[in-house]
Amino acid sequence: MSAPEAGRPPKGADERRHPGGLYALFFTEMWERFCYYGMRALLVLYLIQYHGWQPSQASTVYKWYTSLVYLTPILGGVIADRVIGLRRSIIAGGALMAAGELLLTFPSMPTFYLGLGLLILGNGFFKPNISTIVGKMYRQGDARRDRAFTIFYMGINLGAGLSPFLCGYLRVHFGFRYGFAAAAAGMVVALAIFLSTQGQVLRDVEAAGNDLKIAVSNAEGSARGIPDPIESEAPSAGGMAGMLGRAFPVAMLVAAVGLPADYLWRAARGDVAWTDVIMPAAFGAISGWMGLTLRRIRGAAKDKSVAIFVFFMFAVLFWMAFEQAGNALNLWAQFHTDLSIGSFRYPAEWWQSVNAALIVLFAPLFARGWTWLGERGREPSTPTKMLAAMVLMALSFGAMVIGARAEDAATTDEALQNIPGEIPTKTIADGVVEVGDGDAGRLTFDPATHRLSARGVLPRYVVNHLLEPTAPRSFVRQVEALEAQTRKASIEAPVRVRLEVPSGFALPWDAGEAHDRGVEWDSATNTMTFTQWMETPTRADLIASGAPREWREPLAALQGKTDRARVSGIWLLLSYLFATLGELCLSPVGLSMVTKLAPTRFASLFMGVWLLASSVAQYAGGSIGETWGIIPPARYFMLFVWTSLVGAAVLALLVRPLKQLMHDVR
């Protein structure tokens, strides 16, 4: 077959039409992303609002889940290539993810962790392989391929945009389990679409002269005359670029030893948990592997490969900040943002649809803009686009710093006689003490004036955290026992339990909310009646209601007053806008850059490692997320301003050397 023929659609096909299998994969991926982003929108809020965790604890689960979700596709891709093939891998991954989401609808923590594990494994099988099938439906050089991926990625954003709307609505009006159930339904729909259309997909792949197995191996490539890519006739760059090209692989080998060694030392001293050594050790091993791989490559090919890994560092900094959307920005939306438009109150999860909506709006404009600049020879280089992305990310979190400072400037106080002895305090100045350890020092008490003061919003999870230690232990044990006693409670068969309650006890809800929770209280007989199973949030509120009245009531009053400190959603909107513009500068050019710079032999390996940047970023960002509630929001957001600005400054210095390392690649 001649070269022109190799780039054409199959004989008899309309050169403007795409194969029907593309649209099957479009809807499959759309519903799979519906599943992922719906669950991600709920995860941190579920752990805090349903299970009563603190943000630092929820962030630990978030970092492990999201980092492993982006790490397992490397293993899943290898298994698909060498063992079970693309089709079976996608089916297995979809089934595992659907099962995992269904397990999240059950409230027990063992079931929850099992569900997360299945989601991680399922994503590893599913994610890397469905995109590969899209590419296999087109012959090499087919001009429709780029447009096909544009259509495919619109499906990703459609799913990512719709799921927070539906799952958030269900969470607010019916409970978390219904939000997770909707995400599970999305995965079931995705799997059903793929199973029902796999025949069409296979025919389209075969029509393009491909199959659903791995592409040619290295040995086959050599036999067909593909040159060995690790040697290059073009010489290496000189000057600053040459120094960077020689030093960077050495730095990667040093990091391979230093990173896990540092965490091992800190774990041995008790500064971090031993489980915190696992991911740094894994990342260190990959760094060492890639460092040794780079040392095998010669000439211009090595320069180009080094450029990929230099860009990798800046991608980590960018995604580390960008992926705060599911964690810190989600918490900010739920607890610190005014979610009302007139009398209408919308779910915090809806903010996580903004990025997808903005992508759909701006992606065509960016594509046309780059094309227009390219036709005039003025399109920015890859390093320059990445520099723009880092600056835009700094602006994104700069907007959040302004919003957080406005929220922090609102001060509210309430009369209080004394702080209970069970609550930790820390004297800061003039006898004033910081109260507790869950509100970043923003809750203080002045013994001289007997005023309890809060800066910004005092979230409910902080209040419960302060009340629980002061409830009598005997009362706490009674409430905890109710979980088992009420498991079969219903309207037809209510469960009545007589409780020994502390003085001043009262239900913590109004009549309407008490009815919704299926709880009635008869103070004359100290009897609590349940018409449904007592779930974890009800248990937490009941325990908090056992705290001394002189401590409970001022805290509750203060919490209600601080709700006025919520700030406008304009700061979140600006943050998502700048972050999305940055994403459009970095994400498409990053993938394209790897395909252009990587040696043929290492193309798949380097692409996998490039995608690993998201895993590293999720772990690093989640680790920073563990400080939410320990440092004030404004300082927290400022961390990402600084990381982005420092990254931008270093990248600005490296723009010229990186261009030289890239040689003739734009």
Q: Which sheet architecture does the biggest sheet show? A: 5 strands, antiparallel
On the 0-100 scale, what is the average pLDDT?
Answer: 88
What structural category characterises the helix and strand content? mainly alpha
Instruction: Tell me how many strands there are.
Output: 10
| Straight-line distance between termini | 31 Å
In terms of DSSP E residues, the strand content is: 5-15%
Q: Classify the helix fraction into a percent range.
A: 55-70%
The geometry reads as globular
Strands of the biggest beta sheet: in what spatial order? 3-7-6-5-4
Evaluate the radius of gyration: 28 Å
Q: Which residues form runs of ≥5 with pLDDT under 50? A: 1-7, 215-229
Question: So how many helices?
Answer: 21
For the structure shown, list the relevant keywords.
mainly alpha; five-stranded antiparallel β-sheet; three-stranded antiparallel β-sheet; 21 helices; 6% strand; globular
